[in-house]
TrEMBL record, chain A:
It comes from the Bacteria. The keyword Ubl conjugation does not apply. It comes from Streptacidiphilus pinicola. The keyword Flavoprotein applies. This is Acyl-CoA dehydrogenase. Keywords: FAD, Flavoprotein, Oxidoreductase. InterPro entries: AcylCo_DH-like_C, AcylCo_DH/oxidase_C, AcylCoA_DH/ox_N, AcylCoA_DH/ox_N_sf, AcylCoA_DH/oxidase_NM_dom_sf. It holds the Pfam family Acyl-CoA_dh_N.
From TrEMBL, chain B:
It comes from Streptacidiphilus pinicola. One of its GO terms (cellular component) is plasma membrane. Residues 10-108 form the Acyl-CoA dehydrogenase/oxidase N-terminal domain. SUPFAM superfamilies: Acyl-CoA dehydrogenase C-terminal domain-like, Acyl-CoA dehydrogenase NM domain-like. PANTHER family: ACYL-COA DEHYDROGENASE, ACYL-COA DEHYDROGENASE FADE34. This is Acyl-CoA dehydrogenase. Residues 112-208 form the Acyl-CoA oxidase/dehydrogenase middle domain. Signal peptide: none annotated. Belongs to the acyl-CoA dehydrogenase family. Its cofactor is FAD.
């Protein structure tokens, strides 16, 4: 039995370079910071460029359904780059989670998501763990009623996927009441959505498994976003502390600081391994994918928070300011830690999966 | 004559009988309380105190609060009360104490701390703000830039360190001043921080005139004076007097209020932190008892390192506990708050603000160096710049 490959392929390196170039050109931290003051002008154009022009929205969709027929490994590389720039685009929510919910559906929606023509969001609170309870929306005569709070990707979506009565319905976002909420992470701003008996179209009949699989995959791939974020924090801090001088020396030359950064580098490498394994098992349809997803979340989400906290601490005064981008990463990291289940929730999940039962 | 606790209690009651908080005008009340020695009882008589143990102060404050006495705006004046006042008391002339301590305590004059500069944070002694003596008047003319100055937008006065002799090594050419923030040469610009608000500022000083009578300590003695301020700052920030005070109180309440959010994992972490907070409270009590015998030294460093770590872990834990609710934030609007609040607003704010706790008043790394070198006597890092004239240092 050969080991699962945890390295990047040449194709993935090329993909990364393309995405990085676009984000360097079009996702400036100053404009990202403006999201916190309500200026969302960056979002639409950037998402269009990534989704349609680069064709990233269709990565996980088979070619015969209008997608690129790539795998979770490529999607993971994209997410690393999006994490690295805290890019405010609904890739995870539309091109990963909503797309995977629809993977076995017939209709045209999957192809429309793949082409970037449409953008969708599954109506669950961002904090929902893959094995957690799903919100209750009631359905009567094809009409949907209910309120779901703290949804990521809903502001950017034109189509909402609603889980109700074991099935998934699609509704036009314009028919729902979508209320943006002031979010801890404004680079993934949440919304509350109210459905007042609006008409939904049945898109997946027996959907419970599909929804859960999509959330497992979302959690697995979120780890790659967190890796990208953590790596930025590490690299940015190392660069800064090579430059910053106090006591007549580069601060990064103090051994206490070197050890801190070496520890963080060890953590980022470990996180990369965990995230790659989660993506690889997902890509291969490996039966270990569920364990791998929870391992990745249990490890990487805390590591990303640590990396962002270290970035702030080691930039010190300037790291506490609005004008330095470190805070964008801290807020994203902390929100990501809660997204799709906290590390604690994933450890509790693993207890059952790897037969280390909770004490009675 | 020394008075016992009984005597102190009697004085308070007599004072309250003579100055009904309900009918006495606010400032009149505060000034009278200061004059009666009931402001900070550990200060000397004549300067708002009675020369009593500092440990008695919380009971005094509690009694005044219960009687409905007016507040001396202490939330806005932490730097004045915690740092400027003890430094003025220790190094000030009699005239300086008379001039500054009472309006400081009553909150009539709010203080800020003009220490850090863009190039001199941890290495404060490298500071480049210049103070030059004007021959004719004897006044000092100050030019330079300070940064991360909390509450400068509220302050009438500042404790300021500036370089008076660039030919000396960096620690020796510094002098300590009490500067008037209303001087036309002081330009205070808001500096927004990660919480969205601008609690701190950039302060540009252009030909700011400071009369020599507002110099605190000798010319060139500023480093020693500043160190006294910093030691007081650390004691002021670290260690709380009562159980479940500060961040642990807030998070414990969240736990009690939300049974539906509890998990065994969070429970274990919360209890660990509860124990740490309690032990830190006891450590603070012990440090204050030691301090009653003298001025703070490195003790505050240890307290502050622990305080910051616990506050950060607790506020991070609170967000995990609150889960979905934590993904929402109160308001990112840029405001200039009228006081500093470590535990206010919402859980997200607490989490972000607590990040500053291990930076302001000396970073936790620098405080560990102080512990290692001053308390444990471990050898210091090679000091390449210690004996070089400041003007010859690489900038
Ligand atoms: C919320 C807040 C409020 C503040 N309020 C005030 C105020 O009112 N007045 C004021 O004067 N200042 C204030 N400050 C500034 C504060 O004192 C400085 O930020 C702090 O001293 C660190 O300086 P720096 O930011 O330049 O970091 P640097 O000195 O550049 O340090 C960068 C990093 O290197 C580390 N480091 C530096 N030297 C060493 C070493 N020898 N060994 C190991 N590690 C080292 C530091 O710990 C830090 O992590 C405030 C800061 C904050 C965040």
């Amino acid at each position: 039995m050969s080991d699962t490959n945890l390295l990047y392929t040449e194709v993935e390196d090329d993909l990364r370079a393309t995405v990085r170039k676009l984000l360097t050109d079009r996702c400036d931290p100053v404009v990202v910071t403006a999201l916190y003051d309500g200026d969302r002008s960056l979002v639409d154009g950037l998402w269009k460029a990534l989704a349609a022009e680069l064709g990233l929205a269709g990565l996980l969709v088979p070619e015969d359904r209008g997608g690129a027929g790539a795998s979770a490994l490529e999607a993971a590389v994209v997410l690393e780059e999006l994490g690295r720039t805290v890019a405010p685009v609904p890739f995870l929510t539309s091109a990963v989670i909503a797309t995977l919910v629809l993977r076995d559906s017939d209709g045209p929606l999957l192809g429309q998501l793949a082409s970037g023509e449409k953008t969708a969001a599954l109506l669950v609170p961002l904090s929902t763990a893959p094995h957690g309870a799903l919100p209750t929306v009631t359905v009567a005569d094809g009409r949907l009623t209910g309120t779901v709070t703290s949804i990521a990707g809903a502001i950017e979506a034109d189509t909402l996927l609603v889980f109700a009565d074991g099935a998934v319905f699609s509704v036009a976002a314009a028919d729902a009441t979508v209320t943006p909420v002031v979010s801890l992470d404004m680079t993934r701003q949440l919304a509350d959505v109210r459905l007042d008996g609006i008409a939904g179209e049945l898109v997946v009949a027996d959907a419970e498994q599909a929804v859960q699989d999509a959330l497992v995959a979302g959690a697995a791939l979120l780890a790659s976003e967190q890796v990208g974020l953590a790596r930025w924090c590490l690299e940015e801090t190392v660069t800064y502390l090579k430059e910053r001088k106090q006591f007549g020396r580069a601060v990064g030359g103090f051994q206490a600081i070197k050890h801190r950064l070496a520890d963080l580098a060890i953590g980022v490498e470990s996180a990369t391994a965990a995230a790659r394994y989660a993506a690889a098992t997902l890509a291969a349809g490996d039966e270990d994918a569920v364990v791998a997803s929870s391992v990745a979340q249990a490890y990487v989400s805390d590591l990303a928070v640590l990396a962002a906290e270290e970035a702030v601490q080691l930039h010190a005064g300037i790291g506490m300011t609005w004008e330095h981008p470190a805070h964008l990463y801290l807020k994203r990291a902390k929100a990501d830690q809660i997204a799709l289940g906290t590390a604690g929730a994933h450890r509790a999940r693993l207890a059952g999966l790897v037969d280390l039962p909770t004490p009675q | 004559m020394t008075i016992d606790e009984q005597g102190l209690r009697r004085r308070i009651e007599e004072f309250l009988a003579a100055h009904d908080p309900a009918t006495t005008e606010r400032l009149e009340f505060l000034r009278a309380r200061y004059n009666a020695g009931l402001a900070w009882v550990h200060f000397p008589e004549g300067h708002g105190g009675l020369g009593l143990p500092q440990a008695w102060q919380p009971a005094v404050d509690a009694r005044f609060e219960a009687a409905g006495a007016p507040d001396n705006n202490k939330k806005a004046n932490g730097i004045g009360l915690g740092m400027a006042a003890p430094t003025i008391l220790r190094f000030g002339t009699e005239e300086q104490k008379q001039r500054f301590l009472r309006p400081l305590w009553t909150g009539e004059e709010i203080w800020c701390q003009l220490f850090s500069e863009p190039g001199a944070g941890s290495d404060l002694a490298a500071l480049g703000t210049r103070a030059v003596r004007e021959a004719a008047s004897g006044d000092w003319i100050v030019n330079g830039q300070k940064v991360w100055t909390s509450g400068a937008h509220l302050a009438q006065f500042a404790i300021l360190v500036a370089r008076t002799d660039p030919d000396l090594p960096k620690h020796q050419g510094i002098t300590y001043f009490l500067a008037d923030m209303t001087d036309p040469g002081v330009d205070v610009r808001p500096l927004r921080q990660i919480t969205g608000e601008a609690e701190f500022n950039e302060v540009f000083l252009t030909d700011v005139r400071v009369p020599d009578i507002q110099r605190l300590g000798e010319v060139g003695q500023g480093w020693a004076v500043a160190n006294a301020t910093l030691s007081n700052e650390r004691v002021a920030i670290g260690g709380s007097p009562v159980r479940e005070n500060g961040m642990i109180g807030v998070v414990a309440k969240a736990w009690r209020d939300h049974p539906e959010l509890r998990t065994p994992e969070l429970h274990d972490r919360l209890l660990r932190l509860w124990v740490e907070a309690e032990v830190s409270r006891l450590t603070g009590q012990r440090v204050r008892q030691k301090l009653a015998l003298g001025q703070p030294g490195a003790e505050g460093a240890a307290l502050k390192v622990t305080f910051a770590r616990i506050a950060q872990e607790l506020s991070g834990l609170e967000l995990e506990l609150r889960g979905e609710q934590s993904l929402r934030y109160s308001d990112w609007a840029m405001v200039r708050p009228d006081h500093v609040d470590f535990t206010g607003r919402d859980a997200g704010y607490r989490y972000l603000r607590a990040k500053g706790n291990s930076i302001e008043g000396g970073t936790s790394e620098i405080l560990r160096n102080i512990m290692a070198e001053r308390v444990l006597g471990l050898p210091s890092e090679p000091r390449v710049d210690k004996d070089v004239p400041w003007k010859d240092l690489a900038k």
